[in-house]
Amino acid sequence: MIMTTLKQTLPALLLTLAGTVSTAAFAADEVDLEALTNTCAACHGADGNSTVPTNPKLAGQYESYLVQALKSYRSGDRQNAIMNGFATNLSDAEIKALAEYFSSQDGSLATAERP
Ligand code: HEC
Q: Which protein residue has the closest C-alpha to ligand 1 atom 43?
């Protein structure tokens, strides 16, 4: 009797456990930073040092500023047709990972030459 119950519940229990484990693994992996930064690279450069003046440099900017900028694009508080589109589907974790990545790159920020 006990064995029958165990035989019936064990597979269910294992399935539940497997589900928990794979959900945990998914949560840890949920940010695919490489895929994300590949998208940004087209405009902001692979390391965030954009060479196109209309696309801001992200490298070396404060992490908190980048988080704020991306959340503002996502919410629409900061309006830009391009960036609103790219930020709309970013999760908080993705925004944090992107901000961490770009802020930790060596920045080539500089002030403009005096005329
Ligand atoms: C198609 C070109 C393009 C792509 C791709 C793109 N951006 Fe942008 N990004 C821009 C432009 C243009 C601006 C300036 C918008 C403005 O004036 O607010 C900008 C602004 C920003 C800013 C604000 C910078 C500042 O100094 O205030 C951040 C942060 C940013 N982008 C992050 C990203 C991230 C992260 C990705 C990838 C997920 C990305 N962008 C993808 C074009 C792009």
A: 43
Q: What is the pLDDT of residues 70-110, one digit of tens each?
A: 999 999 999 999 999 999 999 999 999 999 999 999 988 77
Is 41 close to ligand 1, i.e. is its CB under 6 Å away? no
CATH number of 31-107: 1.10.760.10
The pair of three-digit structure tokens given for residue 9, joined into one six-digit string: 């519940």
Among residues 49, 30, 28, 52, which one has the least CA distance to residue 102? Answer: 49
pTM: 0.79
CA of 34 to the centre of ligand 1 (A): 16
CA distance 49 to 12: 52
